[in-house]
């Protein structure tokens, strides 16, 4: 083979490698460094958790719940910060649950660099602290990327996790990457796996899987593939007409009641 052709192939492969270095960052992590004041949090019925802004791991709801039934730890999607997800507090606190909006390292005011090993380890510590601090059942709710984090945290958790609520999840990160970059050998470039199927194959708690019918970011078939792979104690919902980010506007309070009723059957 002529040296010029070899040189061009090597140059092309080098360019692919450079592209691959940024592939995961572009797909997964869009952190904001916004950190609300305590006054701003109070207006949203939140406070830093488990301590003040210097050592916080997220935000806990202060909304009245009546008789507290348990705790739901929310792991959010790849963009913004945990404080952007107050709609979970508005939906779940009236159903009797304390809500912790977990924050990732590298997001908001938290130090660190987002990557799977860091996020999962941090999530497991957040879950451990929540289980030690509060009585009652403990559920994890994941949204998009947060589903991958919640599933991996559940796999390695040393504390009881009573159930998982997975909203717009994937089966594996690799399969989604292939959808978005079919012309790249993505397996060579992904540093993180987030293999939700593998992480949940032995999980025995209840799992609610929620897909968005018109999801262009994580197409519905990925949620369906995950659901099909799961052991028993599972149920799936599909939000009609919803895309990846507009699904909260397409569900009613009664829908949240249905989800929670299913989860509470594990108690």
Structural description of this entry:
- The structure is a single chain.
- This protein is of the alpha/beta class and 267 residues long.
- Helices cover 39% and strands 18% of the residues.
- The chain is built from 9 helices and 10 strands.
- It has helices at 3-28, 38-43, 86-92, 116-133, 145-155, 173-180, 196-200, 220-229, 253-264; strands spanning 30-31, 46-49, 58-61, 70-75, 79-80, 97-102, 138-143, 163-167, 206-212, 234-239.
- The strands form 2 sheets. Strands 2-3-6-4-7-8-9-10 form an 8-stranded mixed β-sheet, with helices on both faces.
- Strand 7, helix 5 and strand 8 form a beta-alpha-beta unit.
- Helix 4 (116-133) packs across helix 5.
Spell out the blueprint of helices and strands.
Elements: H1 3-28, E1 30-31, H2 38-43, E2 46-49, E3 58-61, E4 70-75, E5 79-80, H3 86-92, E6 97-102, H4 116-133, E7 138-143, H5 145-155, E8 163-167, H6 173-180, H7 196-200, E9 206-212, H8 220-229, E10 234-239, H9 253-264
Parallel strand pairs: 1-5, 4-6, 4-7, 7-8, 8-9, 9-10
Antiparallel strand pairs: 2-3, 3-6
Helix pairs in contact: 4-5
């Amino acid at each position: 083979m002529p040296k010029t052709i070899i040189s061009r192939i090597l140059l092309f492969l080098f360019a692919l490698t450079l592209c691959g270095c940024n592939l995961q960052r572009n797909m997964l992590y869009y952190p904001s460094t916004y950190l609300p004041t305590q006054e701003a949090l109070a207006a949203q019925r939140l406070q830093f958790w488990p301590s003040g802004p210097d050592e916080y791991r997220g935000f806990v709801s202060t909304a009245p719940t009546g008789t507290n039934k348990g705790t739901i730890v929310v792991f959010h999607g790849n963009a913004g910060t945990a404080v952007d997800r107050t709609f979970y507090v508005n939906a779940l606190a009236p159903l009797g649950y304390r809500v912790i909006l977990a924050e990732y390292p590298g997001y908001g005011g938290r130090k660190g660099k987002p990557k799977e090993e860091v996020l999962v380890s941090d999530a497991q510590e957040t879950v451990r602290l929540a289980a030690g601090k509060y009585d009652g059942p403990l559920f994890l709710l994941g949204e998009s990327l947060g589903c991958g984090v919640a599933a991996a945290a559940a796999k390695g958790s040393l504390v009881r996790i009573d159930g998982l609520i997975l909203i717009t999840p994937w089966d594996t990160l690799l399969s989604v990457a292939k959808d978005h970059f079919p012309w790249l050998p993505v397996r060579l470039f992904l540093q993180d796996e987030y293999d939700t199927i593998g992480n949940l194959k032995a999980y025995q708690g209840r799992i609610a899987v929620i897909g968005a019918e018109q999801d262009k970011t994580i197409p519905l078939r990925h949620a369906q593939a995950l659901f099909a792979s799961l052991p028993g104690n599972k149920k799936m919902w599909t939000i009609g007409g919803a895309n990846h980010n507009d699904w909260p506007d397409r569900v009613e309070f009664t829908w949240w009641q249905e989800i929670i009723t299913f989860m509470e059957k594990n108690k």
